[in-house]
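hey so u asked for the seq, here:
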Amino acid sequence: MSVLQAILLGIVQGITEFLPVSSFGHLAAIENAMGITRNTAVLFEVLLHIGTMVAVFFAFHEDLRRIGEELLGMIMDIIGNVNIYFHNRKTGENLHYARVVHGTYRKFTAIMAVSFIPTALLGYICRRLVTKAAISPLLPGACILVTGVFLLVTDLSNIGGIKTPKDVTYDNAMWIGICQGISVFPGISRCGMTICAGLLCGFSRKFAVKYSYLISIPAVLGSLFLELGQFTTPKMSVSLGFTYVFGMIVAGVVGYFMIRNLLRILQHAKLRYFAFYCFVAGAIALISNFA
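ran it, structure tokens below
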């Protein structure tokens, strides 16, 4: 992979990551078209997602600060409840336990944690299959078409609701996490799947988009943890590592300038327009393999 190719892929990642059109599918299709080998390309794609994840941090820094504070508070309450349990067992007293989940941001933190569980399990189980899927000349394009169908059906169903974090059930969070886990395959849009799943669960459009962006953070960090070992493989050179990091920086910069406008667009635009784009992009990806 050359530096120019890394720049191009970083730009594509920065633009498509925050739209329901599958950034991974676009990356895989472009890499296949340019003849880029997959030796350590999964690591590169994860680094591109790290770059755009930084844009999410900037866009939602206040929410993330509150979530971090509440997460720490929940951990301390759990530790305290464990101590109370053993104290009650030892002394026969009946001290009351602290309520771990209360308030909007603690509920937000709890449902994000629940969503991450199936995402992590599916991502770990399917990681080798995902690598093979990415080198397929047909699968990324076909999956982009599947994303388009899912977006169109959701849009035409005119679903959605008024749920905010305090109204979300843990079942809702689990289903959204499963949808995010399925999106590890190239062409299945993580953003599109989670937004549509949120709408199906009765989320308000604004909250569905916000939740989709925020739950990408633990998913991306988990992916990075799984792929860090590729930095030490014989196929990874210093120059290639520099190219990968440079692409990550480009993705982060482009994503930073894109996320605010795209956030407003996603909160109001009809999903059918993104579905039509997916049909065109998927068709081009498939046809290009027979040209």
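The chain has 13 helices and no strands. The first helix runs from residue 3 to 16.
lmk if thats what u needed
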